[in-house]
Amino acid sequence: MQVVIVREDKRNVRRKVSEDEDDGTESEEERLRDQREREELEQHLRERDTARTRKLTEPKMSKKEQEEFVRRDSAVDKGDIESLRKFSWQEYMKKRKQKKVLELKDDIEDEPYLFGDEKLTEREIREFRYKREIYELIKKSTQEEDNVGEYRMPDAYDQQGSVDQEKRFAVSVQRYRDMGSAEKMNPFAEQEAWEDHQIENAALKFGAKNKEVSDNYEFVFEDQIDFIKASVLAGDNYEDEMHAKPSQDSAGKSAFHMLQEDRKALPIYTYRDQLLNAVKDHQVLIIVGETGSGKTTQIPQYLHEAGYTKLGKVGCTQPRRVAAMSVAARVAQEMGGKLGHEVGYSIRFEDCTSEKTILKYMTDGMLLRELLGEPDLGSYSVIIVDEAHERTLRTDILFGLVKDIARARPDLKLLISSATMDAEKFSDFFDQAPIFRFPGRRYPVDICFTTAPEADYMDAAITTVLTIHVKEPLGDVLVFLPGQEEIEAVEENLKHKIRGLGTKIRELIICPIYANLPSELQAKIFEPTPEGARKVVLATNIAETSLTIDGIKYVVDPGFSKMKSYNPRTGMESLLVTPISKASATQRTGRAGRTSPGKCYRLYTAFNYYNDLEDNTVPEIQRTNLASVVLSLKSLGIHNLLNFDFMDPPPSEALIKSLELLFALGALNQLGELTKAGRRMAEFPLDPMLSKMIVVSDKYKCSDEIISIAAMLSIGPSIFYRPKDKQVHADNAMKNFHVGNVGDHIAFLKIYNSWKETNYSTQWCYENYIQVRSMKRARDIRDQLEGLLERVEIDVSSNANELDSIRKSIVAGFFPHTAKLQKNGSYRTVKHPQTVHIHPASGLSQVLPRWVVYHQLVLTSKEYMRQVTELKPEWLIEIAPHYYQLKDVEDATSKKMPKTSGRAVV
DNA sequence: GCAGATTGA
After folding, report:
1. Domain co-membership, A431 together with A491
2. Which residues fall in a compositionally biased region of kind Basic and acidic residues (predicted)?
């Protein structure tokens, strides 16, 4: 059996190495360290084994493998949707399982020999793990199943006698010449190549690609990172692209004709008729296509050409405003009409449609709003849910609703469009709807993993960027980092390192990008890179989906992002740095191949990738506060929420919590039915607590002030601009608004009014370290709320001097969010007791009022209440007698509390 | 003595 030979061989290699190193002079300290490391490794491998054994008993094919298979299958007879549909999953599953089982069995049997009595050095351990990873990778990427068992060992180079250096060298070079099939079958040749490569890298030669710059300089980075090319994110239609370029002699034609030719060059054009047939035959269709295939712009036009628009509008939803606008503009151009006539878009604050509009692009939230007024979507003949794979909160809700509508309205066509992952899941959800796949247009991207785990991803990212800069041909680099802080740190460090290298390297332009960055600085990333220079974009998640940067050739992916999670029990939100999912790793990788073939450097090992990363990101609906979702579903007439058809149901605890909250706010009655107040609250596109605050403000005659506060609160913390070097100034500027310790809500009101008094001056914002963009948004929201007040018959009334009535309105919305001071200076929430603190950024963080109402709880380094305002405990009984009893409030006035720490409300 | 990723209505 060949496996046996392999074992023998490996053992030889290992013995030799350990003899060399074991020279008997090892210190006690080293011995202990070695032992500890070995124990750690053993522990790790044991855990892995149990995980494997589990897999062995219930073998499961990952989504990725399924996709792989389908892609391969469709390559055989491209575009033939019939053959795709006929294909048998059972048979394929069976085959895969058998194979998987064999592989795993092999591995597990293979492992124990490692832990005999022999001592393993760190180097050996790493080597073994490395080999194992490669082996697994290669098995995975093997195309022909038959070949799996027959890989061949390379000649050993460390046997007695002469070593054939020439042959050895040939192997290492071959890797770069082509990834031939023999090479792929041979994991240890790869290893050799890697070692050679590593030695070569130890002295980093500079300018090898460019004779003119290449002097005799040698740069050595102290901690070079080793990468290994593991796989390729295949490009689709890469060849086609080359030929499909519009012809040069089109000068004589009109712009309109050229647009029509461009349309025909899109990959989707080939499948036009098949697609239309499929739409005709099926009510629901899942469409899977890579980005750049033209599905968003073309499909609605095809449907229009096929006459669907005669029966009703074609609606296409997008998760983002910008996308809806720009796509609509493009399609209007292609159809030769004006935007807003036949083709229009509808987003918050902007409705660019008319009665003539037949193709309507909109944000998904907008369609949800429309559903409130038109529950059967009667004016639409087709609904397209685009970018479904992003699984935003609103697309998830739409799925459930739209599925229901489709059952009631057989004439409504439903298209769900998504990138590759999860297609089967969508299909299952929509009653086994057929899947229509077609290729996109993307260049291939090489994927490289590190050979060993990196302890500090930021440091690793910096080194990688510098290595790319010095060694790789020109092309821009995109680095994904979790947040603003990390971006700033990396930027500084990179600048410092570049200064150290002086003029011997090419110019490196560093561009940070994150959502909170002022927009004039954001624009920098889109400026073309000067000749001979290289641009490095340091980005958060924003570059993963929201914006695309052309010209990116290299992607550096440390594998982390920040993710919000919500604990329904405590009502606490937290933002944590978490490992990304495989799906988003693929998404990040794809960013390198938009305009030319590229490379992606992942700062984690292949082993981490396959074993530690989740397949898909947890959908938003499972990690967020559902109160406003529940309210809008209730107002759509969906009563039994626990049975609502969610694709991934949120935790029922979260649902129940939301129902309880809405009941406490008076939006629902004991039967769970929407009350009149609830109906009014649902009109506002806000969190129910904020809506309640507005509805109540009618009673206290201060709706004018309250909507300003609500608008500011819904913008959140991005109002303030606090650059690192000017933190003191920024904090001082804030103090003006907190005069008299009025509380954060009133401070927001003061900020808004001051800005309004300066006639919405940009200058004023700069002076006070406030973000203009956020303020403009607040103004838009405020305007919208003002318009809605009329609809729910609330008069705009102002009562600026009665701060207590404003406070009472706030309490009326946020009474479940109250806390009282403890002896030690911390706070305790009243209803579901837990210890919390006032956020240091709050104006009241030094004042410590006895009772406070807070806007939200966040968990960072401590449990913090963000945005707090003082209240009188009597108000709770007055405003929410159903929620608070006298005993809840009595404690406050008890003698235990030192009188000095409380402060009377003005 | 903080430290906010990203959308959307």
Report:
1. no
2. 30-72
